[in-house]
Write a structure and sequence with these properties.
By secondary structure, the chain is an alpha/beta fold. It has 7 helices and 11 strands. Strand 4 and strand 5 form a beta hairpin. The longest helix is centred in the last third of the chain and has 23 residues. It binds zinc ion (ZN).
Length: 221
C-alpha cells in the first residue's frame, strides 16, 4: 500500500460496508498508518468487530478525497450500511458490492441483507445516470445501466420462480433452494438459501407470501 501511495501520507480510509472482505484490514492499516481516519456508514453491533475509531458518514455527506469531491450515497440491500461514493464531475460511482461484472450480488438474509432495499438502491443509482462504476470486485463497468437493469429483471424472474415453486408444493426455504439451485454444489447451498430467504422476506412484506413455522405459502393460492 505504501508503494501505491507514492510517498503520500494515507489520511483516510472509506469503507463501503462491514463485510469481512471490506473491513477486516482496518486494524492492519491502522498499525501501519496510525493517524489514519476510518470512515463508513454505521452498522451498530457489527462495526465493533473491527475495533478502530469508525468516524460515521451520513447519507448525502460530501467527502473530499484527493482532488475529488465525493457524495455519500446510502445504498442498502447487500448490507444495511452499504455505501456508494459518487463523483458528480466525472459521473463515476465507486459502487462497493452493489454490482460486479459477470456476476449477481448476494443478498445475505442473516447479515441483514434486504432485497427490497437492494432493488430500490439499484433504481436510485440508475437514476443518477453513472457513466462508469468502479466496483470492489472485478473490472470497471462502463455504461452500467444495462447491467443494473438486468439485475432488477433477474430478481423479478427469480421471485416469480420462487412463487411458482411454492405453488407446485415446495414449502420450506430448504426445499425451494434445492429445486431452484439443483445444479449448485452442496457447499454453495447455504449461501443460495440466504438469497432465497431474502426473496421470501420481500414476498412476505409485499403481502404475497406468508409463513407458517418453516412452511411458506403464497397468498390467495
Ligand atoms: Zn459485501
Amino acid at each position: 500500500m505504501a508503494a501505491a501511495l507514492g510517498g503520500d501520507t494515507l489520511t483516510q480510509v472509506i469503507v463501503t460496508h462491514a463485510h469481512g472482505d471490506h473491513s477486516s484490514g482496518a486494524l492492519a492499516v491502522r498499525s501501519r498508518f496510525p493517524g489514519v481516519r476510518f470512515r463508513k456508514m454505521p452498522w451498530p453491533g457489527r462495526d465493533e468487530k473491527w475495533p478502530v475509531d469508525w468516524d460515521p458518514i451520513a447519507p448525502g455527506e460530501l467527502i473530499q478525497a484527493g482532488d475529488a469531491l465525493l457524495t455519500a450515497v446510502h445504498t442498502p440491500g447487500h448490507a444495511p450500511d452499504h455505501l456508494c461514493l459518487w463523483d458528480g464531475d466525472t459521473r463515476v460511482m465507486y459502487c462497493g458490492d452493489l454490482a460486479q461484472s459477470g456476476n449477481t450480488v448476494w443478498i445475505p438474509f442473516d447479515l441483514r441483507g434486504d432485497l427490497a432495499d437492494y432493488l430500490d438502491s439499484l433504481a436510485r443509482v440508475i437514476g443518477m445516470r453513472p457513466a462508469r462504476l468502479l466496483p470492489s470486485h472485478g473490472p470497471v463497468i462502463e455504461n452500467p445501466e444495462p447491467l443494473l437493469r438486468r439485475y432488477i429483471e433477474h430478481r423479478q424472474a427469480r421471485e416469480q420462480q420462487i412463487v411458482e415453486v411454492i405453488q407446485k408444493g415446495a414449502s420450506t426455504a430448504e426445499e425451494i433452494t434445492e429445486i431452484i439451485y439443483a445444479a449448485l454444489s452442496e457447499k454453495m447451498r447455504p449461501m443460495a438459501k440466504q438469497g432465497v430467504l431474502s426473496h421470501l422476506k420481500k414476498l412476505e412484506r409485499d403481502g404475497r407470501a406468508r409463513r407458517d413455522g418453516e412452511a411458506w405459502h403464497i397468498m390467495g393460492a
